[in-house]
Amino acid sequence: MADRADWRAVGSAGGRKLARYRGWGHGRKDLPQELERIRRDNESLRRQIVKQQQELGEKERELNEKEKELAEQQRRIQDLERRLAAHNRNSTNSSKPPSSDGLAGPQRRRGRQPLQGRRRRKPGGQPGHRGHHRPLVPVEQVHELKTLLPQECQRCGEPLAEPAPEGVGEPRRHQVTEIPKVQAWITEYQRPQVKCSHCGQGNYAPLPASVRGEFGPQLTALIAYWTVVCRMPRRVVEAMLAEVLGIKMSLGSTQKAWEEMSDAVQGPYEELQKQLPHEAVLNIDETGWRNDGKKRWLWGLVAQQFVFYAIAAHRNAAVLVALLGAVFRGIIVSDRFSVYLSYHCRTLHLCWALLMRNFIGLTES
């Protein structure tokens, strides 16, 4: 029985193999068609891949163009933001001087601003404040004294006795301050010729050193004050002298008087410059300056008792070295300009006002 079962199993396996061989033989007849179908499918897939690659390349080019446009727009936005920030800069949020605010952009807030929820005070004196009046000059310093007596009674209108009786108590005082008539004080120095009794040579006395020029020291100092401190043009000074003081002076004479005063203060100027390296604290800043149409820099050094100005052709540390030496032993207070950061000093303090303005500018931008 076991042998018969084994033969059945062998026969069954052989039948399955025979069936498979028959199917393979039948499939060999359809193989060219199957290969042709597979080739067509591969060709179709290849064309689809090429088309998708072309579409992908176009998408990448479009994406690159969009990225370029986006980068260009971002650059333009940043440029516009920088322009807007520069347009909105004034003396309250940057290191620009108040004179450069102009009329463009938001105006600089002036004066104290009211707190939130409070009403702004009206201009002028506030109720209850102590009044300030011009004090009277002592009688000893009065140049002219005039006594005014009433002619009639202010109550009944009857005329007062002649001569008017003396006043009762202290009189009411009222003073008027006036400038006397300004007139040029001209001094003429005459030098007659004196001949020598021995040789007959004519001699003239020399002029004093203080009157070598045509204008005195007071007038020269006034011209220098108007020109330097008040920043008045030369032609305005010339007009002021002619119309107010009655002194006719040419434009060249005003310039010459200014130059004479400049030479006169050269000595004190050099003494103050020698004192700069010995100061404990110096507040330093610089600004643009025009001299004969050329770009210059005006340096201001503020000490405890004086202010020193210097006009230099450069805005570098060489100016500090020339004024303060290679190393300054004191404290320098300045802005964050790189020149001060590179200069050797004992201590460098940054100006808090400039830092606050820069912080305000950052918050506004």
- Strand arrangement in the largest pleated sheet: 5-4-3-6-7
The rounded Rg comes to 50 Å
Question: Strand share of the residues?
Answer: 5-15%
Low-pLDDT residue intervals, each spanning 5 or more residues? 17-25
Overall mean confidence score, pLDDT: 82
- Span between termini: 104 Å
The class by helix and strand makeup works out as alpha/beta
Count of DSSP H/I helices: 9
Query: How does the major sheet shape up?
Result: 5 strands, mixed
Structure described in brief:
The chain has 365 residues and is of the alpha/beta class. The protein has 9 helices and 7 strands, in the order H-H-E-E-H-H-H-H-E-E-E-H-E-H-E-H.
Structure description:
The protein is an alpha/beta fold. Among the domains are: 53-86; 215-264; 266-365, no CATH class. It has 9 helices and 7 strands. It has helices at residues 2-28, 31-87, 217-229, 234-243, 251-264, 266-275, 317-324, 338-342, 352-364, and strands at 194-195, 202-203, 281-291, 294-302, 307-312, 328-334, 345-350. The strands form 2 sheets. The chain has a 5-stranded mixed beta sheet. A two-stranded antiparallel sheet has the order 1-2. Mean pLDDT is 82; it is low at 17-25.
